[in-house]
Design a protein that fits this description.
This protein is mainly alpha-helical. The chain has four domains: about 1-100, no CATH class; about 115-295, Lysozyme; about 375-425, LysM domain (Membrane-bound Lytic Murein Transglycosylase D, Chain A, Roll), CATH 3.10.350; about 440-500, LysM domain (Membrane-bound Lytic Murein Transglycosylase D, Chain A, Roll), CATH 3.10.350. It is built from 23 helices and twelve strands. The strands form six sheets. A two-stranded antiparallel sheet has the order 1-2. The protein starts with a helix and ends in a 5-residue tail after the last strand.
């Protein structure tokens, strides 16, 4: 009885053109591509020989639908079986879409021009690239969603990491922003992350997520809108605040997230910031219902781990040997360890595969002493250079500098006699990352001050010989509360900043 009703219901949908008697609609409405053409493949799931009916509780084939329709409505209804099949597919697509929900507002803006353009891009010319990024994100998505939920932020803000970096812990931008959430060094340090020559926790999927969430919560509190907070995350809170003040008269009656789109329509924001929220909405639309858009996503193993404590200069290769895991697995779990070993002056917590921490200490102690140490300590002799030591050690000068970033030398390249030098082992060098100096930051506008713990607007105003009122006006702040890691425009021009290293 239930199956017959299911067949009749699907047939009725096919006959009437869609749910609730609506006219037939294609599985995908053509949208404009970046080049101005139409992409008619958006939103059309691959055809199958069967469809679901009544909330996926009953599965029936197209042939059965046709047969039942003939019984109920007569043979004339099913003369065009292909049309019936297409109608059934449309009904299924609508049913699938009905059960998908978002906790950020995508429905109000999905037809907005910039959003439609990015949907077309993600499902068209960049489809393979986008699909790979979404699949990579399945490794981190459960962890990110849990942290967002605990912080009281929408879980679908996970897609911010998708548009920032494609969920890559090793992403590096032209502005020297790093990691999955693309944090600058000073912002990361202000949020409590360790960033130095040996460790860069911006590359840590877990701790960088915590830092990004703290910053997003602050921005949402300041602007009262999730999408304005996202724009500020990309373009800076000062610029967003100044824009809202500058065009306040034009925005009368606009509130909340609508204000972002009103501001984006002005000739004020950089194109990157104008497109930032539309990218987020488009990414959420496509990534949360990939089958609808023809994407095939195979979920990866969630990012999970146990932890062990090891001493200074411990090679990741030794951790791998003691756990029985490949070095590549240990490196992937610890993308924030930059030089293939723990810092030379600190004991450190290293992540290992789940279940491999038990018995680690005894297995590690059983390794040969030379295998447990990543470097050899030597002192330079008269006339020696890094180049001569590098050749002797079988590494390049650049690789030797990874382990001796502060090694002094004369203009001729000679090391002062007695200079302590660390000579790395082959296993350490092979696991090291070739990354830029984490102390470098680049800014594209005026002079910027990154708020440190304990600083107030008054202290910052005194440092830059200005007033609190001037700083608030320059940065568009409505209140004097500031957050560690926040970037404040002060004055002048600064292109490159080299911050003091730790370690």
């Amino acid at each position: 009885m239930g199956r017959a009703w299911a067949l009749a219901a699907v047939a009725l949908i096919a006959a009437c053109g869609g749910p609730h008697g609506a006219p037939p609609t294609p599985a995908a409405t053509p949208v404009q591509t970046a080049s101005g053409g139409a992409d008619t493949g958006v939103g059309h799931a691959p055809a199958t020989d069967s469809v679901h009916a009544i909330g996926d509780s009953v599965r029936v084939t197209r042939a059965e639908v046709a047969g039942q329709a003939a019984k109920v409505f007569g043979d004339s209804l099913v003369a065009d079986s292909s049309a019936l099949a297409r109608a059934a597919d449309t009904a299924q697509t609508a049913a699938d879409s009905a059960v998908v929900s978002w906790d950020i507002d995508v429905r109000s803006y999905e037809t907005q021009r910039r959003v439609a353009r990015f949907v077309s891009l993600f499902t068209g010319e960049s489809r393979d690239h986008f699909e790979a990024q979404v699949q990579r994100g399945t490794r981190y998505d459960p962890m990110i969603r849990a942290k967002l939920r605990a912080a009281g932020l929408p879980e679908d803000m996970t897609y911010l990491a998708l548009i920032e970096s494609g969920y890559s812990p090793q992403a590096y931008s032209r502005a020297a922003a790093v990691g999955m959430w693309q944090l600058m060094t000073s912002t990361a340090r202000g949020s409590g992350l360790r960033v130095d020559w040996w460790i860069d926790e911006r590359r840590d999927p877990v701790r960088s997520t915590d830092a990004a969430i703290r910053f997003l919560r602050y921005l949402q509190d300041q602007f009262g809108s999730l999408y304005l907070a996202c724009a500020a995350y990309n373009g800076g809170p000062g610029r967003i605040s100044r824009g809202l003040t500058r065009f306040a008269g034009d925005f009368e009656g606009r509130t909340g997230d609508d204000l972002f789109f009103a501001l984006a329509d002005k000739d004020y924001l950089r194109d990157e910031t104008k497109n930032y929220v539309p990218q987020l909405i488009a990414a959420a639309l496509v990534a949360k219902q990939p089958a609808r858009y023809g994407l095939h996503i195979v979920p990866l193993e969630p990012y999970r781990y146990d932890s062990v404590r090891v001493g200074p200069a411990t090679p990741l290769a030794a951790v791998a040997a003691a756990t029985g895991a490949p070095v590549g697995v240990i490196s992937e779990l610890n993308p924030f360890i930059l030089r293939g070993m723990t810092p030379p002056a600190d004991s450190y917590t290293v992540r290992v595969p789940v279940g491999r921490a038990d018995g680690f200490d005894s297995a590690f102690a059983a390794l040969p002493a030379a295998q447990r140490t990543g470097v050899t300590h030597v002192t330079s002799k008269k006339g020696e250079t890094l180049a001569t030591l590098a050749r002797r050690d079988g590494v390049t000068v650049k690789q030797l500098q990874w382990y001796n970033p502060k090694a002094p030398h004369t203009t001729s390249g000679r090391l002062p006699p007695g200079t302590p030098i660390l000579l790395p082992t082959e296993s350490v060098v092979s696991a090291a990352l070739d990354v830029p100096d984490p102390a470098i930051e680049r800014y594209g506008g005026g002079s910027v001050h990154i708020v440190k713990h304990g600083e107030s607007l008054g202290l910052i105003a005194h440092k830059y010989h200005t007033t609190v009122a001037a700083l608030m006006r320059l940065n568009g702040l409505r209140k004097s509360t500031i957050l560690p890691g926040q970037a404040l425009v002060v004055s002048g021009t600064r292109r490159v900043s080299r911050t003091r290293r730790r370690g």
